Amino acid sequence: SEKCLLRHFSSVGFWGLVNNAGISTFGETGWLSMEKYEKFADVNLLGSIRTTLAFLPLLRKYKGRIVFMSSIIACFSLGNGIYSMTKAAIEKFCDALRLEMKKFGVWVCIIQPGNYARSTKIQPPVSAEEIWNELSEEEKAVYNKEYVQERANFFNSILSKGSTNGNEVVDAMVDALMSPAPKARYMVAKLKEKALVFVCALFPTVVMDSILSYALSK
C-alpha cells in the first residue's frame, strides 16, 4: 500500500521518481468516445499526478528528482490529438511543479522524445477496418472508408519510421536523475522533429497549421 511504501522509503531514503506510464492511440476528435478521453487522461495525466503527490513528502525530505515522460507531440498533433492533449497537460503540471520545488532543492525534469514507436511499442499499427467499425453512425455519415484508410496508412507510415535506439531516451532519464545540474527539458529527437518544435514555438500558428495540413494531404 501507499502508506507501507512511504514508511519503507522514509527509513532507507528516496531519491528519484520517474513517471513513465503512458498509452497512445490514433483517431480524429469525433472518432473517439468520451470514455476513451477519460481513460487517457486518467493514465497519462492523472496517473503521474497521483504518483507525484504520493511521494512528494519524501522527495522534499531527500531533495530528490522527479522525471516526467512527455513528448514532442505536446507541441503539435498528427492524428493522435488525444495523446498530444495529455502530454501538453503534463508539461504544464511540470512547469508549475518545477518552480514550486526549487525552494526545497527538488529538481523537476521533462523528457521529450521524438518518434520512438519502434522502440517502445506504445502504439501498434492501426487498422482502418477496426476504426471504421467503432465509428458512430454520425461519424460514418461524414467520413468514408477510403478516408479512414488514408489516415491509417499515413499514421502507420509515421510509426514505421520511428527510431529503434530507445537507449537514447533512457540516457536522458539517467542524466536527469544523476546529473549535478539536470536540464529542465531533454528533447531527444531527430533534427526534422526538432525543427517542427522550433516552428511551433516561434512562428505564428498559421505557419504550423500549413505545414501539418500539407503533411496530412500527402
UniProtKB/TrEMBL annotation:
Stretches that traverse the bilayer: 66-83, 195-216
Keywords: Membrane, Transmembrane, Transmembrane helix
Origin: domain of life: Eukaryota
Entries under InterPro entries matching the protein: NAD(P)-bd_dom_sf, SDR_fam
Family membership noted in the UniProt record: Belongs to the short-chain dehydrogenases/reductases (SDR) family.
Protein name: D-beta-hydroxybutyrate dehydrogenase, mitochondrial
